[in-house]
Give the backbone structure.
Amino acid sequence: MRRSTTSLAALAGAVLLLAGCGSKSGSGTHPGSAGQVSPPAPSASASAPGGCPATVELKAADTGRTVCVAKGGEVRLTLDGTKSRPWKPVMASGTALKGINAGFVVQPGNATAAYQAVATGTEKLTSSRPLCAKPAKPGGVSCMGIQEWTVTVTVK
């Protein structure tokens, strides 16, 4: 029993350590916000001429947003999924973006994509995944819900 308790404590410590790796001390709070953290915006590089950033990085939390990217710039995205609730490949509708190499997908269930902004205009990026995992046993209870992900990209 002692061995599993030690392993569990080590695992919990590693999770807490990793959870703190992406945080910045004091960022995202506003005076008088009583410690509330504002939601992150899509990360973007410095603005190019025309007011849009040259690079935009999107995550699952960015669903429903409209973002702007400079012509010639890049849009990169990673949707973190699971083996039991995988994201479908990202679909692009329009001619403003051209697919480029997104690199490796490390985790089963994730969806990654990368696009170069090749023409001015608007393009919609979409994906979806199941709201819940498939039942472990045949005849088990399952939900038929779908989680949709959509971002509109404006190229200027």
